[in-house]
Amino acid sequence: MTGLLAATTSAADKRAAFRAGLASGSIQRLPGAFNPLVAKLIQEIGFEGVYVSGAVVSAELALPDIGLTTLSEVTERGRQIARVTDLPVLIDADTGFGEPMSAARTVTLLEDAGIAGCHLEDQVNPKRCGHLDGKAVVPTQEMVRRLRAAVSARRDPNFVICARTDAAGIEGIDAAVERAKAYADAGADLIFTEALYSTADFEKFRAAISIPLLANMTEFGKSELLTAQALESIGYNAVIYPVSTLRLAMWAAEQGLREIFAAGTQAGLLDRMQHRSRLYELLEYERYNEFDSEIFNFRLGKDQ
Q1: Within the chain, which residues score under 50 in pLDDT?
Q2: Distance in Å from the first CA to the final CA of the chain
C-alpha cells in the first residue's frame, strides 16, 4: 500500500529537496497543477516541483484573481496536491490573507498542509493578477513586516519563504531591485521577480540579488517566454508555469463541448481524449485492485 493513497516522501524531506534544488545550480521547473491528478502527471514526466497558483485556485471557483479566495480554500487545495506527490509544492499565498499576523498564520497552516514553500507579494490588498495594469504596491517597510512575520512563524527552517515583488511595472526595475534587497534582508529565501519584460531585466535582477531567484513564465503576460535553459544560463534558480495546464485543459474542454453541442455526439473527439487505460495507469488502478484482493482473499470460518 506504500505510496498508493499518499506520497511516501515526508513534508520535511520535500522541503529539504526544494532547498537543495534551489542551491544546485540546476533550474527547478515547477508547472502549475490545477488538481492532484495533474500533480501526479507532473511528477511522472520528471519535473522538479509542483506549483499551486492563486489565479488558478480562483479560476477553478469561477472567480477573478483579485484576492477573493480565502486562506482555508487555498490551504486545502495545497494539501490535496501535496498529499499525492513526492515533489515539493510551492504555493501562492497572495498577500498573506491580511495583516502581518495573518501572514504568520498562513505559514503555519501551509506547513501543516505539507507544503514546501509559499510566496508572499508586495501588492496592496485586495491584489490583482501580476500581469495586469493598475496594480499598486505597499510601502517597502510594510512588506518587510509581512515577511518578518512569516519568517518568525516558520517551524521547519527548510520551509521556503519567497518574496514576490510587483514593483517593476509600477516603480521601475531599479526600485524593484531595491525592494528585493530589502526583502532578502528581512529573511526571504527566494525572490519572485514578477512581470519583467526582457532577458535584460532578468539579467539585471540576477546581477543585483545574491539569493535564489524565481521567474514566472506565464502565457499572454508581460514577460518574454524564455526557455528554462536560458533562465538557468542567466542564473535563475526556479521557474513556474502557473496557468499552463489549466489553459490547455480549458481550451480542450471548450472545443470538445462545442463539438458535442453541434454534432450531438463525442464520437469525433475520441482521439483527443485521454484514454480510460491511461487514466487508470496514472491512478495506479491495478495496484489498488491488488491491494483489495490481498485483504479480501480469505473466508471467515464457522468459529470466527
Answers
A1: 304
A2: 26
Full-prediction pTM beyond 0.90?
A: yes
Please give the positions annotated as active site: 51, 65, 92, 94, 119, 121, 129, 164, 194, 216
Chain segment 87-145, per-residue pLDDT in tens: 999 999 999 999 999 999 999 999 999 999 999 999 987 666 655 566 799 999 999 99
Tell me the torsion sign for CA atoms 257, 242, 70, 11: positive
243 Ramachandran zone, left/alpha/beta (phi>0; psi -120 to 50): alpha
Alpha-carbon distance 118 to 99, whole Å?
16
Which position has the grid cell 545574491? 210
Separation CA 299–CA 155 (nearest Å): 49
β-bridge pairing 50-52 and 28-31: unpaired
Grid cell digits, residue 178: 531595491
On whether the CB atoms of residues 55 and 82 are closer than 8 A, the answer is: no
Look up residue 208 and give its three cell numbers: 543585483
The DSSP 8-state label assigned to residue 32 in this structure reads B
> What is the C-alpha to C-alpha distance for residues 109 and 105, in angstroms, rounded to an integer?
6
- Which pLDDT score is estimated for 195? 83
How far is residue 106's CA from residue 110's CA, in Å, rounded to a whole number?
6
What is the model's pLDDT at position 268?
A: 97
The answer to whether the beta carbons of residues 228 and 27 sit under 8 Å apart is yes
The grid cell for 7 is 506520497
Largest Cα separation within the chain, whole Å, is 81
What distance in Å separates the CA atoms of residue 178 and residue 125, rounded to the nearest whole number? 21
CA distance 12 to 276: 35
User: Which amino acid is residue 237, in one-letter code?
Assistant: N
Given a contact cutoff of 8 angstroms between Cβ atoms, the answer to whether 117 and 91 are in contact is yes
